[in-house]
Design goal:
This protein has about 120 residues and is an all-beta fold. The protein has no helices and 11 strands. A hairpin with a 6-residue loop joins β5 and β6.
């Protein structure tokens, strides 16, 4: 069992930056692929980025590639999402997730554990 708690969301102007954090419980964090998804009202949960268990490999949605960076510190049981050059279309609730699939997993059903989400609002 893994419990995930996101933090770092908030209101930011277009072009600005935010860093999301996700703290995980348990001693097996370093064995999980970690991911970030986002969701807006009335839409399906959308893949944003993922990182392999070791942190050596990452994968991004086309819409965020070059602007967002996912990273992790296994010694701290924490995964991060650094978001730069934010746009109004990045506004969403962002969810941290953990799973046992390869790091290129982009479907919500491929992950096993989810955080409660953190709101990111980008004003234009």
């Amino acid at each position: 069992q893994v419990q995930l708690v996101e933090s770092g969301g908030g209101l930011v102007q277009a072009g600005g930056s935010l860093r999301l954090s996700c703290a995980a419980s348990g001693r097996t964090f370093s064995t999980y692929t970690m991911g970030w998804f986002r969701q807006t009202p009335g839409k399906e949960r959308e893949f944003v980025a993922s990182i392999s268990a070791s942190g050596g490999s990452t994968y991004y949605a086309t819409s965020v590639k070059g602007r967002f960076t996912i990273s992790r510190v296994n010694a701290k049981n924490t995964v991060y999402l650094e978001m730069n050059s934010l746009k109004s279309e990045d506004t969403a609730v962002y969810y941290c997730t953990a799973g046992r699939r390869p790091f290129v997993a982009t479907g919500p059903g491929e992950y096993d554990y989810w955080g409660q989400g953190t709101q990111v609002t980008v004003s234009s």
